[in-house]
Amino acid sequence: MNTIESFFLTLGLSWTISKAIPYTTCILLGLLFIFLIRKWKTKIKWISIATKFMIFIVPFTLYFAFYPIYVGDFSNKGATTRSNLEFPFQKSITVIVLPNCPYCYQSLSLMMKLKKRNPSISISYWVATSDTIPEKTAILRVMPKEFKAIQQHETKAISELTKGTFPCFVISNNKKAVKIWNNNQFGVRALDEIESFFN
User: Which residues, 6+ apart, have CB-to-CB distance to 50 below 8 Å?
Assistant: First the structure.
């Protein structure tokens, strides 16, 4: 999540629109440049066309080079699910992580943005492990105080729920799992769905 997208989020726009606006703006800038040089021509027609095309794609290409679109960015391929696991709040989002998974650490900043936009949402982290984790050596060491952190030892049930992929994001109602996303499925459209779920 870059500064431009974060700015649009602070304006109250949805996650999807905030993500899409910069790319759309770059395309419109390209069209504007083409309009401004529309009368420019060369004796060789294909050179004129090629030059205008290059000018058109420059804004989008530059922005994309710094902020590429990844496969899951606009994804929302979460699945409805059932599990015997009991989640900590009546209605919440739970992020299931491993103690030292780098992608799991990265989820913290995203969840902080979600929490800032939706202070009433209950967010908890389950650290899946069969061992007792010393707080100084695990993700618990950097866990924001806004999140409830739980060491979850029911590793078999968690593995069945997550299919071995971490982090996983689970929304629950009445302490039961409703829908789950793995990290590659959890794009801006999923975040919009989550906000709708809680609102």
Answer: none
Structure tokens at 184: 């590659």
Q: Which of the 8 DSSP states describes residue 12? A: T
Give the residue carrying structure tokens 């009445």.
Answer: 174
46, two tokens: 């294909």
106 in Cβ contact with 129 (< 8 Å): no
Give pairs for 105-108: CB < 8 Å, separation 24+.
Answer: 105/139, 105/142, 107/167, 107/169, 107/183, 108/139, 108/142, 108/143, 108/144
Q: Which residues pair with 181 in a beta bridge?
A: 169
The alpha helices in the chain, defined as continuous H runs, are 3-10, 15-36, 45-66, 102-117, 155-162, 188-198
| pLDDT tens for each residue of 65-107 | 999 888 788 878 888 888 888 988 889 999 999 988 888 999 9
Q: pLDDT per residue over 161-191, tens digit each?
A: 999 899 999 999 998 999 999 988 899 999 9
Helix axis angle, 15-36 to 3-10, nearest 10°: 120
Contacts of 41 (CB under 8 A, 6+ apart): 48
Peptide bond before residue 22 is cis, with ω within 30 degrees of 0? no
Least Cα distance to 59 among 25, 98, 105 occurs for: 25
Q: Are 34 and 52 in contact (CB under 8 A)?
A: yes
